[in-house]
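S.,

As promised, the adenosine-5'-triphosphate run. Input:
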Amino acid sequence: MSPKLQPVRGTHDILPEEFKEFHKIIEGARDIARLYGFEEMATPIFEATEVFARSMGETSDVVSKEMFSFETKGGEGVTLRPEFTAGIVRAFISNGMQQHLPLKLFSTGPLFRYERPQKGRQRQFHQVNFEWLGDDSPQVDIDLICMAGQLLYYLSGNTKGCTLLINTLGDKESRAKYREALVKYLTPYAKELSEDSQRRLASNPLRILDSKSEQDRKIIEGAPQINQYLNDAARKRFNIVHEALSHQDSAPMFQSVKITPTLVRGLDYYTDTVFEFVAETGELGAQNTVLAGGRYDGLIEQMGGKPTPAIGFAAGVERLLLLGGEKWPVIGKKIKLMIIPFEEVNSIDVHRLATQLRITLTVLPSKMGIMLRSTVETLWQGKLGKRLEKASQRGATHALILAPEELKQNLYIVRNMQTREEQKVPIDAFKDMQKIRNIFGF
Ligand code: ATP
Ligand code: MG
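Predicted complex:
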């Protein structure tokens, strides 16, 4: 009798019962993508090996040991995608998508890494992935990280959320200085470092900070930290991001925000802001990073495109499933809201409002059994008229204009983009679903 056929090590079947949960995660991520104005796209499951090797860096763990690479019958070297970003950047360049910037892109599907299988770590796994291309403002980092927090909150229905770890890798100049200092500090310890870290000392020293080896951790404790090497621009940028995130009405979004100087992420392409969401509880064990991302302003140019700033993140679907929880019911009616703050308005207040609205417009309707499919975006730069025009182009049904005079009286201006009618609405009205329904007329 022939031996029983089994799934290949590190892969598993998703049977119907599990698929229902799996599907909830993907659909939930689509809801959040829509809420923040992201559009879905897909790239091939395999690409020329160079696409990943060039972007993620030859010395990264993924490229040096985790890729499923093979030769086609025609002799082309191809690799099953280990992540989304490289393929999306390749698609952005090869399809001339430059002219449509800024772009907010959502993707989902299977990924492949040759890793040692454990709970929450497989050789074929799935991600929901978000990339925001074409805007280097720190406000974008803040908005995207809030979105990541809301995604986790929405999917797990859990008010405890996760802890947000953030760090900055600085710009090129700061990072080069830091790298030098780090190598200088580590070199005398070279023989005491783990084998992996010894290898990285020459090729990718920052990565040593990320090491999980006990012997390395002791040495790393005394290492210089990146924040001492940031130039003014990089420091200012990071402070803006950190301050706003600390001010978010964060209770449902993330339990706390921790600056984590050793958070470096594994890939070469990251610059400035990097972040991870870590589950404090649940079944995840050592695989407790559920979501991770960062800014990669140099990558598109490095891959042969025009210089284009970008930031993104991905969450592992299998790990989200281990987080557990219930998803909110699925929703149907559309409000597309564009928040337009006057320049004098405090940006922290604007983020706070955006967060509040995004929560209200998802949680309240679901509690009331109403179906709603909303988008809440923010638009920061340019004259009011130009911004209203942009809002129309992006299909906004309403603009929420934040003007200093009205704000003093606790009023927002709500503009119906179709009828051009404007009304002044008390801030408090946005906490009440019935009032929200009246304002937006549904
Ligand atoms: P880790 O430190 O756990 O190896 P990573 O830094 O390699 O994670 P990323 O490349 O940033 O992970 O991928 C983002 C997310 O994808 C991770 O936070 C995790 O949720 C998920 N993920 C990564 N690798 C795997 C895997 N082999 N199996 C299941 N999920 C994974
Ligand atoms: Mg990994």
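The chain has a mean pLDDT of 88. The first helix runs from residue 16 to 35.

- D.
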